[in-house]
Specification:
It is globular and about 65 Å long. It is α/β, with parallel strands linked by helices. A five-stranded parallel beta sheet has the order 2-3-1-4-5, sandwiched between helices. The chain has a single domain, classed as P-loop containing nucleotide triphosphate hydrolases (Rossmann fold, 3-Layer(aba) Sandwich), CATH 3.40.50.300.
Length: 176
């Protein structure tokens, strides 16, 4: 599953709630910060860092267990998301939020946990998401996270994932 959204849309909060419901979730931004030290350091080596990140995510997705959920803005990761969709049955959930709500969330969340902690860069990424990702990236579900809190969003999404994971019954034989 892919949680797709602009910074401040609630991807991490929904991911944490999905983990509470038994799905696999890992906060890759923390891994990236541990690996490269800061968002700026990651961006400085992005051409080399993205393939390493994507390799780690692929390995993690391939591990046995419950369905995995990842988060993305769909900007730098677009080719990776396309490849995942070609290789796996992916549920793509876009989390929408207004710029004002995203800004309030980004400025109030704990620092050091996200690549995009600086609210000054939010407008550029938010606009790119709206202009590039929203019109072009196919999604299965869109959730307005200002209206539906993370726990409810996760319950909805987890239910969809579980229903999709159940084997489908064979079609009934036709009567003559």
């Amino acid at each position: 599953m892919v949680l797709l959204g602009a910074p401040g849309s609630g991807k991490t909060a929904v991911g944490e709630e999905l983990a509470r419901r038994g799905l696999r979730w890992r906060e890759w931004e923390l891994w990236m910060l541990e690996r490269w030290g800061s968002g700026e350091a990651f961006v400085a080596v992005k051409a080399e860092a993205l393939p390493e990140l994507h390799g780690a995510i692929r390995a993690w997705i391939g591990e046995p267990g419950a369905p995995a959920a990842i988060e993305s803005t769909g900007l730098s990761d677009a080719p990776f998301l396309d490849a995942l969709a070609a290789e796996h049955r992916c549920l793509v959930v876009r989390l929408d939020v207004s710029y004002e709500d995203a800004l309030a969330r980004v400025t109030s969340r704990p620092r050091g946990r996200h690549l995009g902690d600086d609210p000054r860069g939010l407008r550029r990424v938010f606009q790119a998401f709206q202009q590039v990702v929203v019109p072009a990236r196919p999604v299965d579900l869109v959730v307005d996270t200002a209206r539906l809190p993370p726990a409810h969003t996760a319950a909805l999404v987890a239910g969809i994932v579980r229903r999709r994971a159940q084997p489908r019954p064979a079609p009934a034989a036709r009567r003559r």
